[in-house]
Design goal:
The chain has 260 residues and is mainly α. The protein contains 13 helices and no strands. It has helices at 3-15, 56-60, 73-89, 93-106, 111-123, 127-137, 145-157, 161-174, 179-191, 195-206, 213-225, 229-237, 242-259. It is elongated.
Length: 260
């Protein structure tokens, strides 16, 4: 199958409403550290235990006057970062970003504020703003792997897979075998049409000894996109009901038939 068709099929499978797992989850992981691909390609994914963030359209309509005048106790404990994280924990990411942007206007060289603003913007789907903030947060002498990986996420979500892969690899060089980063590197390969590297990377993630159901689901998806349906269904059946595993294989098979 030509490279362009592989990329198109991978994008359909990864961005579509049906994801291996048979639920509203997405194969693009987002961990609480904010270092991985920010939700599904069509929008942000909530962190487990945290309310879903508002859609970008809603975030754009939030006026500054909506920021409560009375600051929560978290501000007294840790300033703007603490306030932003408290708002983020409540799901008020748009308000968190406004607070961070206000603080950055006063402290434009503060890398911690830039990194937090970049991650929140990424969760809101504001990719250009996220990239600029994360680039400002990078320390060229001693780069932080969280920031590098988050920047890879921004590029991957925006469709620039080559840049995304370079950043994920850099993050892995700093923090080897980090499973969410390996996962996202693999998905970036898949979106780039390189299913062989995607499979190899997901198997490497699974071999870390801490393999999650999400990793197994993504591996099943990549195997199915490669036409290895028997192997894919076997892996999927190990992490979800067999009827859902079979239904997902039927869905991906239909995609590959369309692309053939």
């Amino acid at each position: 199958m030509p490279h362009a068709q592989k990329s198109s099929l991978a994008a359909l499978a990864l961005a579509g409403s049906l994801v291996l797992g048979g639920c509203a989850a997405t194969p693009l992981l987002l961990d609480p550290e904010g270092t991985t691909l920010a939700g599904r390609l069509a929008g942000p994914k909530p962190v487990a235990g945290v309310a879903a963030p508002p859609a970008p359209s809603a975030a754009a309509s939030v006026a500054k006057s909506e920021i409560p005048a009375a600051k929560p106790a978290a501000v007294q404990a840790g300033g703007t970062l603490a306030l932003a994280r408290a708002l983020r924990d409540k799901g008020d990411r748009a308000k968190a970003l406004l607070e961070l942007e206000r603080a950055r206007a006063e402290k434009p060289k503060d890398r911690d504020l830039a990194r937090e603003a970049g991650i929140v913007a990424l969760e809101l789907g504001q990719l250009d703003k996220a990239r600029k903030a994360l680039e400002a947060a990078l320390d060229p002498v001693k780069p932080d792997w969280h920031t590098v990986s988050a920047l890879g996420t921004a590029h991957a979500t925006g469709g620039n897979q080559r840049e995304a892969q370079a950043h994920f690899k850099q993050a892995l060089a700093i923090k080897p075998d980090h499973q969410p980063t390996l996962n996202n590197l693999a998905l970036s390969y898949a979106l780039d049409g390189n299913l062989a590297e995607a499979e190899k990377t997901l198997k490497s993630a699974a071999a870390t000894g801490q393999s999650t159901a999400q990793i197994q689901e993504n591996l099943a998806l990549v195997l199915a996109l490669s036409g290895k349906f028997a192997d894919a269904e076997k892996i999927a059946a190990g992490v979800m009901p067999k009827d859902k595993a079979k239904a997902n294989m039927v869905y991906v098979r239909s995609l590959t038939q369309q692309g053939s």
